[in-house]
Amino acid sequence: MSNEIEVNNRKSEIQPFSFSEIERMANAIVKSGLFGVKTIEQALALLLLSQAEGIHPVCGARDYHIIQNRPSMKSETMLARFQANGGKVEWTSYSDKKVSGIFSHPSSGRMEFSWTIEKAKGIGLTSKDTWKHYPEAMLRSRVISEAIRTMLPGVLSGMYTDEEVESFTVIDANPAKEPFIEPKTKSSKKETAELVVEPKPEEPPVVKDVSETVSPEEREAVQLTWNERVKGTSEAIRNEFAADLKKKYGFKMFGDVKKKDLLSVIEDIQNWEPS
């Protein structure tokens, strides 16, 4: 039985695009505001990575993110790839305290993976707002990443989830140097005072206002809530509900939701009753 990964098998199915075509796609994606890609350079990097992975560049822009200048993959995409390659998952616990699932695959057997809120606290993850408001989604993402990295790492191509990359410690490659202070020197004349060069005071860092920015974790939490709530409804009903939300809160995509409206949007989705 072949152990080849489906993601790599698709390479022969996708005709490669020229660099100029990918560049035009990158420009269009940035201008559209879709997928949360901010710059042409980021979009180009994601599209070239997608082509190397053998998937359509636009699908790559949908499935990958740039977090702290590193490519990352949505946990839902990881799970979809795992299942597309014959993997199965059975969720055994799903709460704000613990998420567990039994993952199985013909080539690697069957194993249970768990993440608890206490474990997350122990490594300093729960101080962030996303962990406070959406603990189930964050625990689920960690379980998926750990399980698939263990059971079938080939489908991930070394990628981490958005949530994992957000928690990485960023090391400054060019740390600020200590100011140089010249040694004290005495004049040959006794009446001359000692000359001391004082260091220049450091300027305060410029802090950007990110109060309106919705993080990738928050965007994924909204998407997960939406997916669970509209499951089993018709496309017409879903489109009507989506139009009502967009009109009420003034956004085009979930990634455009303002931070101040985030909890209200999630509450509206959870309380929605299909007509």
Description:
With 275 residues, the chain is α+β, with helices and mostly antiparallel strands. It has three domains: 17-67, no CATH class; 77-166, no CATH class; 216-271, no CATH class. It is 45% helix and 11% strand. The chain has twelve helices and five strands. The chain has helices spanning 6-9, 19-32, 40-53, 57-63, 75-84, 117-122, 129-133, 135-151, 162-167, 216-230, 235-249, 262-271, and strands spanning 64-67, 70-73, 88-94, 98-105, 109-116. The strands form two sheets. Strands 3-4-5 form a three-stranded antiparallel β-sheet. A two-stranded antiparallel sheet has the order 1-2. α5 packs across α8 (135-151). The model is unreliable at 7-12 and 187-192 (pLDDT under 50).
